[in-house]
Amino acid sequence: MDTCKYHPLVPTSFHCNSCEQDTCSECVDNSSSHGQPRCIRCGELLESVANSDNVEPFWRRIEQAFKYPLNSEALMMIVGVSVGMAVVSSLPFGALTLFIITLALYGAMLNYSFMAMTLSSDGDFEPPTAVDAVAGGLGLSFKMILMIILMVGILIVTALQVGQVAVNLLGLLFIVGLPAILICFAHTGSIIQSLNPVMFVNLMAKVGFPYAVLLGLLLVMTSSVSAISAIIGNDFAAVSSVFQSIVANYYTLVMFHIMGYMLYQYQDRLGFTSGNDITGYDHERNPEDTLLAKVGVFLKEGDYARSLGLLKEGAATFPTNKKLAEKYFDLLLLLKQHKALATYADIYFMNLAREAQMNRLYSQYRRLSLVLPKYKPQSSELRYQLAVTCEQQSNFKAVVWMINGLHVDDLNYVNIVQAYQLLTKALQALGQDAMAKKCGLLLEKLKQRMPAKAPKEAARPAGKAVFDAQPVSTPTIPPAKVEFGATAPEPEIEAAPESLPPIEFKP
User: Fold this and answer.
1) In the chain, what are the domains?
2) Does the predicted model carry a pTM greater than 0.70?
3) CA 371/CA 369 separation, integer angstroms
């Protein structure tokens, strides 16, 4: 089985005749306006090569198929729907309300299963997120009910017009062809086309014997649900109902994943190419994901310059994309791009602070400090936020480094008092009592210059990310610099705030 050059465990989907290399559907550039996948390295059109000869048969992946639902998202969906149905059925709802809620829950599970088939047919063997299954569940339930009504209607008409023998044969055809009918529905989104015997019988014929294997698996799983019901009995009806529902939903997801993988395996026979939207669901890759795919390829090729250029462009174009920001920051660190780091770190850290990712903020700052030990943000608020998170991690030297001289750089900073309170505690924790005492005197002066009744924006709690500090204000007459450890006159309490001496703390 041929595999992707950049993902050795993933089967090949495309071949580049120019570069003479095989790739999977994730390692292509599908940003073309015509939707034709191109090679990321050279830009040439790719040739689809995925077929049943170079893809592992689905019957050899039975173990992986049964492990497919053992994912946090899938399990949350399976258990949530099962318990939800049991709870709803025990509540005193009216018949119509109960019917609608049950349909919505059933539809959510069915929608989730169809999404699993969609992703599997596209070569993505990770379950979808549970949140995505909520939308459209009720509509899908009604479509399934309509499909069943049409099947029953076709059987009734056949019985009236032809006879019982024809009804039996047609009913058997519907039962045997049910997986093919579902696959056709996922492929076309049309109930009429899905129930067209020409379509689903043609699909069964093209797949051949493996389709019989699929039917056998379906029969075994359906029988096991009945066996579980018989073992549990009726003594614990509620528990039995929930457990049977969990098992049934688990098997449903397994079967839909296998059907999706079968589509992926036999895509050449069935007339479509993995990577296209074959099921009617919108799973096209967005520009950010395409850019990340390009970066991934260039990184594995060792082309760091192109990777860095793409990430720089992406970080500017999509500033809210966390993956792009993370990769750009990581690559700047790896390549030790000091100048770019000094600029981008402020933006990256500010976004982390805005999102209250304080642990991540600290860990990334520690990594940065190994490359830029003298890094200090331009923003007063970011300096304060870094000092807060460093203090929480007992990194008191970093607290001193961040707050030191803040009153000189931005005397009107809204959290200036809280910042120097933090600095005083850090100096005490470091055993720098003399410096802590001088910092305390400065803190008293800062408190005195605060208005009697601070405005609302000045009373924000310490630690909250606020990025609207006032511009840096420079004193009219810059006072002389005094370092701790040097002989200097004691600052006077009654000194005017504008003449506060700048103080350096050397940790």
Assistant:
1) 1-49 (no CATH), 59-270 (no CATH), 287-375 (1.25.40.10), 378-452+460-507 (no CATH)
2) no
3) 5
